[in-house]
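Running this now, will post back.
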Amino acid sequence: MRLNRTFLFAVVFLCFVRVATGQSVTAILGAFDEEVRILQASLKDKKEETVNGVRFAIGTLNGRRVVVAETGVGKVNAAMTMALLLHVYKPAQVLFTGIAGGLNPDLQPGDIVIASRVAHHDFGTVLHNMQPSRQTRNPIDRELNPEYFPADSVLLLRAQQAARTARFDKLTLTNQLPQVVVGTVVTGDVFVSSSEKVKQLRRDFGADATEMEGAAVAQVCWQLKTPCIVIRSLSDRADENARGDMMTFYKTAAKNSAALVTEILGRL
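Update: finished.
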């Protein structure tokens, strides 16, 4: 089988960079263009590469060597990009950033959830003992994955520290700075815009936010033993007004999420 020449070039280039600089690479992913555009625009010594059709931006952000990519929406797209990035760039850690729907009634659009754990809310299977389970299975060792994928403890600590010093934009609704909390984020291949679904996810998972990519990225990282954390800025309340609210608060939410990620990089 012939290998893609661009793919081989990327592997060789990244190996050269690591040898030449002695510095590991941090991966930053987001699902939407706005989520990654802000970060890519801030890169120094920026270089763009395309590997198997997926675009990656490499450079330095807040003193840290990074590779930034847009995954596209949904778990399959996120997992594909994550696996490709891990194979080619071999990052030391992974940060997933972007927007989400709020489930916690104490939070509002613009607030930020640092995920201490993430889970698939739309996955279910039956084990060999006929017991229902939400756990996925690792195809590498055939063992069951945890129902909730925990954030890397070092990244979680750095994120909490960074939240105290990051420069956030004030929220449109209150003209105050966003509240940053540590909580649970759930992932599913559906845009949640239902008050009943909000109640169900809150009841069944104790979730603070819902989105469409985080658990897929966390699962790939867990199975391939790469430190990972998911950070989500709320663009809506995942209720019947979610679509309109997302369009209203999307840019501020994405900017604040990017601000926190940038601050985290300075602490790695």
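The chain has seven helices and twelve strands. More later if anyone needs it.
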